[in-house]
Amino acid sequence: MKKAQRQEDRMQRGAGILLSITSLPSPHGIGTIGREAYDFVDLLAEMKQSYWQVLPLGPTGYGDSPYQSFSAFAGNPYLIDLDELVRQGLLTEEEAGSADGETGSLKISEAEAGTLEKPVDYGHLYQTRFQILRKAFVRFHTEKKEYRSFCDENREWLDDYILYMVIKNRENGKPWYEWEEPLKQRKEKALQKIRKEEQENCEFYCFLQYEFFRAWTDLKAYANGKGIRIIGDIPLYAALDSADVWAEREEFLLDQEGRPTVVAGCPPDAFSDDGQKWGNPIYDWERMEKEGFSWWRRRMDAAGRLFDIIRLDHFIGFARYYSIPAENENGRNGKWNKGPGRKLTEAIEETLGKNRVIAEDLGVLVPAVKKLLKKTGWPGMRVLLFAFDGNPHNEHLPYNYESQNEVVYTGTHDNETVAGYFAQKTQKELEFAYRYLEIHERRQIPDALIREAYRSSADIVIISLQDLLGLSNEARMNFPSTIGKNWRFRMKKGGITRERQEFIRNLTEIYGREADR
User: Stretch 260-279: mean pLDDT, rounded?
Assistant: First the structure.
């Protein structure tokens, strides 16, 4: 065993739930930063939890993925609560109610029907939500001191985002690299013309960000007051079609037309014969280093105000990253490159301070990644869903954890649910799990894994809501490398029964994971 880190150098021992804001109950088709979010915080406190982990909060585009956002700094307008706008006098109840509608269905069992709400219908949201939000904007007084202060204080990123969204709407949703040349190349005369002609629309997009950040700041303060720390998720890469790349393309490896020469992804592995081509542009790491990683410092400063702790997605890319020629169809024939390494992690720590980062170090680890993670002192991740392949040396088995400085999950947003994963295993494949967990039936596995996570040495335990409720793969959040069926899961109000609440509360007490309140 490695020498343990001092307690003051580690995060507070505790437990929490992974649940996207979009997955909260709501009468208006998608979870929001509204009453149900506050109720969920209260529920976490009642279950003696310390953490709430959410998915990225940025505005989403094609594919609806929070990991492919129009901005690394902006908030998602879909998360603005319509009932709150009614309380402010900006909408009528009838106008808010017009957002309701059929949102599709899941093939669920009778037992699950009392737990799941109709899934998010992003097509319906795209067609209707902004029309409703515009009605609220018309009644909003843009001369309000708080509003004007918000616009001024966030101008560094807000102006570029507003212009990007306004032009994108004028261009019928086209990505920025297909815009007319003066707009694509950000010629000042063309941008000034847009500002003048689209003044009201520019104000509208500023209003949306004001409402989002006002609501989020209040919710975070409420959670912190209840002893709940919020863990946010930050993708490694920026989306190609984003305000970030459009406004600061010199930070990325692009050609003169603004198109990437190489893109991010991962090579073929056990999950994908062709690998994955994500399509995100690669950073110009050499330039960023010369600038002292100023873009990353700004990004992490913004994230640090949104969240108490930040999970850095795809940490492996900090040590080495996989680049694929942009013209390739899949993740084959890419190459590995040396990442920014310790210089970037030091810049992040200088910006955020200590004990505020979780490194998502999943995947095929190489010595360089392990070495970098050790230097940072950041906790890595362990996932129990990966642990039961019959190999007693599997690093995800709790007795193989090298320190307490770990965050253990039953599964992540990219995985099958525990119940769904083990439902497909043969009795022979289940034998090791049964013996290890000291159980005899498949239906016992979800709760047994949760208990195993809680009793582990890992400082932090995060359980996905789907696993707490024992849901099947119909409740899965994301199927990587697919489009059209992801990010839609929603829980029903009251879905976490008193029996489930008591189960988690008891584990929290037994294994010393109670929050300091």
Answer: 87
